Amino acid sequence: MHPGQPLQTVGIISRPRRQHLSVVVPPLLKWLEARGVSAVYDEETASSLPDTSKGRTRQYVADSSQLLLVLGGDGTMLAAARLAASRSIPILPINMGSLGFLTSFTLDELYPALEDTLTGRSSVGQRVMLQVQLERAGSVIENQSALNDAVINKGALARMIELHLIINSEFVCRYRADGLIVASPTGSTAYSL
């Protein structure tokens, strides 16, 4: 969504098996439709509706939307951020989870926040996303985006590993440890506990 561009499609991504969805989603869809805004939603959201056939994959929802509305907690927000990273679309997080450090709006604030977004009275904060690439023997074996942090470790076995840390193609250091945590300015939810 760019400034001055009318909002036409909202994507809804929900936390799986959240009981309140059946109460929240149907009136939300009617509210959006009354304002000429179409909605596309994931399978989790569709499971709260009488017609579950309209649910799409989360990636499809992110790729088809100008704004992502996240109904869940921090985990759902982090998943949505990874999906939206390549398109840089805004995310409106509504806290319906157990942790809400990253989901700043409550259910009571859902409609006022959406109204502000539709009328251009809201501001969009930019967040840094981490792009993490794991290589072994010169081959890329993992490539991920993260809003808050990236953890690299040996796995279930607590053994030392040798790490070569390279940031933006610049060698930083080499060391032996049991892992590495790299946090963005958003920070890790775990730090807030």
Task: Write the topology of this structure.
Layout: E1 9-14, H1 21-34, E2 38-41, H2 43-46, H3 58-64, E3 67-72, H4 74-84, E4 91-95, H5 110-118, E5 130-136, E6 139-146, E7 149-153, E8 161-167, E9 170-177, E10 179-183
Parallel strand pairs: 1-2, 1-3, 3-4
Antiparallel strand pairs: 5-6, 7-10, 8-9
Structural features, described:
This protein is α/β, with parallel strands linked by helices. It has 2 domains: 9-118, Probable inorganic polyphosphate/atp-NAD kinase, domain 1 (Rossmann fold, 3-Layer(aba) Sandwich); 130-192, no CATH class. 23% of the residues lie in helices and 32% in strands. The chain has 5 helices and 10 strands; from the N terminus they run E-H-E-H-H-E-H-E-H-E-E-E-E-E-E. The protein has a 4-stranded parallel β-sheet, with helices on both faces. It has a two-stranded antiparallel ribbon with strand order 5-6. Strands 7-10 form a two-stranded antiparallel ribbon. It is elongated, with a radius of gyration of 19 Å. The chain starts with 8 loop residues before the first strand and ends in a 10-residue tail after the last strand.
